[in-house]
């Protein structure tokens, strides 16, 4: 996506060797980057490390008969120290949430699945690696940069460059300052969307709608159509989050905290037991800043009243209730997306967008097949010879330079149950894109 949107040269990758830190008992302690560093990890006791190792191998209590929270799953599988000193601050950093309430299955489904498929975290990891090695590896786009290892990335002027670049490529198809005020269902199975725009009211008719707005906003829009869907979408919780940006000159940083003249690392996590309310100022100065340093510059304060959706225990059931309610009122072509559906990380939002796009494509394909009308001269005189259940042929044509493939769907009306080679094939590509 970075390459396709023209941002390849603006992409900045993090240093895969840069350590993450956890603040514990007045000291920033680096988190191990690989298993060989575990013996030297001073955040956990020897007993805590042994408990985590045996638990990961499957020597721990069996799974309960109910949906586990992140805290329950981690304490059962890896022990108290891993939870209190690593996972709890990690959850606070990612979700700004309470791991005793977050659902392990919903919030960290890939880790939860390891125990399901392998009987333990290690067993599931081994099986996953084996299956990955057996599966054909997708070809890597040669246009992408090659990081040294697993890392994160952003853009030189921040993540806002990505939606701005995509909007620029889409041109007039992107409508800014259009506020969706109502959705109504049309008799022909489509939808009418009414917007408030700078030029006045405007309406759009469409066969499908993808709602990627926050769930609480979607709830208000669905209320006139389905109380069940609106009630389900209103149950997701978004806590407030504040971001404070301060700037110190380099000479204010303690010399022992610098590596090659730079403040190395990728952020720091703070367990609740270490006093979160004091860490922003007092303890940060003790650990990183010279006592005689000048006051920092406050570059900005940003508050989001409803920030990150919480994947609480029962989240997946509530989400399915919302989707089921839309199905019950025959809202075909209405799709839910966004971070409360796919996940809060940018990568998961992108993956979720591709998944929803595939669902929309399939829906429009089926809609097109159902609404194709052939002239009488097109079909043979004996219509009974034709199969009443036409089949779909999906063809993939590779594109040059590793750009992927072009998908073409065709409707095939075969003669008889065997669908002979003389089947009539109708390409509906033009119909789908119109």
UniProtKB/TrEMBL annotation:
Molecular function per GO: oxygen-dependent protoporphyrinogen oxidase activity
Domain Amine oxidase: from-to ranges: 4-276
Functional note: Catalyzes the 6-electron oxidation of protoporphyrinogen-IX to form protoporphyrin-IX.
Cofactor note: Binds 1 FAD per subunit.
Family, similarity comment: Belongs to the protoporphyrinogen/coproporphyrinogen oxidase family. Protoporphyrinogen oxidase subfamily.
Transit peptide found in the keyword field: yes
The organism of origin for this protein: Trapa incisa
UniProt-recorded name of the protein: Protoporphyrinogen oxidase
């Amino acid at each position: 996506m970075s390459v396709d949107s023209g941002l390849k040269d603006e992409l900045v990758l993090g240093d895969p060797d840069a350590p993450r830190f956890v603040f514990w008992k007045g000291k920033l302690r680096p988190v191990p980057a690989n298993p060989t560093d575990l013996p030297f990890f001073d955040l956990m006791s020897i007993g805590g490390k042994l408990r985590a190792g045996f638990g990961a191998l499957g020597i721990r209590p069996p799974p309960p008969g109910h949906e586990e929270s992140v805290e329950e799953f981690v304490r059962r599988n890896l022990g108290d120290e891993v939870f209190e000193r690593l996972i709890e601050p990690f959850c606070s950093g990612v979700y700004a949430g309470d791991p005793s309430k977050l659902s392990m299955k919903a919030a960290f489904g890939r880790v939860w699945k390891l125990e399901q498929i392998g009987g333990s975290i290690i067993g599931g990891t081994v099986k996953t690696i084996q299956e990955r090695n057996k599966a054909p590896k997708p070809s890597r786009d040669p246009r992408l940069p090659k990081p040294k290892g697993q890392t994160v990335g952003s853009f030189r002027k921040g993540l806002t460059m990505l939606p701005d670049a995509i909007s620029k490529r889409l041109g007039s198809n992107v409508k800014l300052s259009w506020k969706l005020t109502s959705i109504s269902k049309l008799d022909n199975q489509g939808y009418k969307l009414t917007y408030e725009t700078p030029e006045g009211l405007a309406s759009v008719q469409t066969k499908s709608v993808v709602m990627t707005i926050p769930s609480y906003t979607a709830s208000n829009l669905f209320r006139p159509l389905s109380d069940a869907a609106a009630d389900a979408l209103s149950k997701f919780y978004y806590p407030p989050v504040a971001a404070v940006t301060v700037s110190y000159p380099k000479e204010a940083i303690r010399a022992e905290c610098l590596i090659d003249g730079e403040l190395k690392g990728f952020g720091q996590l703070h367990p609740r037991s270490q006093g979160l309310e004091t860490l922003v100022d007092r303890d940060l100065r003790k650990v990183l800043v010279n006592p005689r340093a000048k006051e920092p510059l406050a570059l900005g304060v940003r508050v989001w009243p409803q920030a990150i959706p919480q994947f609480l225990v029962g989240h997946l059931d509530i989400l399915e209730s919302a989707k089921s309610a839309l199905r019950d009122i025959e809202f075909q072509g209405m799709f839910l997306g966004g971070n409360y559906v796919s996940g809060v990380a940018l990568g998961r939002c992108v993956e979720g967008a591709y998944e929803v796009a595939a669902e929309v494509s399939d829906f429009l394909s089926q809609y097109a097949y159902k609404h194709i009308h052939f002239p009488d001269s097109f079909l043979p005189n004996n219509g009974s010879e034709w199969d009443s259940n036409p089949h779909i042929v999906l063809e993939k044509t590779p594109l040059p330079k590793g750009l992927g493939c072009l998908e073409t769907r065709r409707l095939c009306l075969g003669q008889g149950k065997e669908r002979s080679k003389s089947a009539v094939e109708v390409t509906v590509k033009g119909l789908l894109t119109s």
